[in-house]
Amino acid sequence: MCPRCHQNAPLVYRGFNAFCTACGAPRVPLSGASVTLAGQPSKATGGVARVFGWLVLVFGTLLATGTFAACSALVGVAAAAPYLFAVPIAALAWVLSYALFKSGNQLATAGLNSQTAMRTRAVRALANTRGGNVTPGDLAHAVGTTPKEADDHLTAMAKENPDQVSIEVDEQGTMVYRFASAYWQAIGVAETGYAVPQSAHMAPNAGPFVRSRVSVPPPPQSAFGRAEPRVSSGDDASRGEPLEEDGEPEREQALRRSR
Q1: Which phi and psi angles does 236 have, rounded to 5°?
Q2: Is the pLDDT of residue 247 over 70?
Q3: Stretch 156-183: mean pLDDT, rounded?
Q4: Which of 23, 36, 61, 175 has an alpha carbon 20 to 30 Å from 118's alpha carbon atom?
Q5: DSSP string, 215-245
Q6: How far is CA 218 from CA 110, 167, 211, 226, 227, in A?
Q7: Pairing of strands 175-179, 133-134
């Protein structure tokens, strides 16, 4: 969570420096999830798997073809030897390449879904700090992408959740995406004086509302180990709070009689 805007916003890396996607404040690198790195390992691994799939397919097919040609030259095409050696090699190469292609596509899809989920999280945090209004330019600058990709992502969110996201056009002709579930008060740039809103008015990714406790000292004790009686006041009388009875405690009365 960002210590400045109190939003559960991911990080965005610009060079080696990390920043909050909601308010743009500097953050400690590797202190949270990053929209820049989200899904990149899965995408890279999926790309490597597809490359190996093409290599296995090409070299396996060439090896099977060469084996068939060599065996045919030795024993003839009508013999069974060329087929017994070439067909299994080709089948194995095709099966392995298919498995590599499939796993590569699955990894790429998982990486894309992870990146989309992280950008959605950044959009909601950004909406909390801007009164619920987000433009493609704002999102592109916040997450480090192009305005076209930012607009496509916001449009997809509006299609998936039409009851939460509406599209409007301002006086300058800019598309504005309004989030109904966002907190309708922009957070200022000052770090002090920030009031945590109620959880019912926060977006789904907002941080929890923490209540502070105030310690109250115990009432003063009298010489006999009892709390001193309260003094009546107008506030107590107006609230109808009971007051302690006037008069001496029973232990003091017993001491006076013994004397």
Answers
A1: -65, -40
A2: no
A3: 83
A4: 175
A5: --PPPPB-TTS-BPPPPP-HHHHHHT---PP
A6: 59, 57, 22, 12, 9
A7: antiparallel
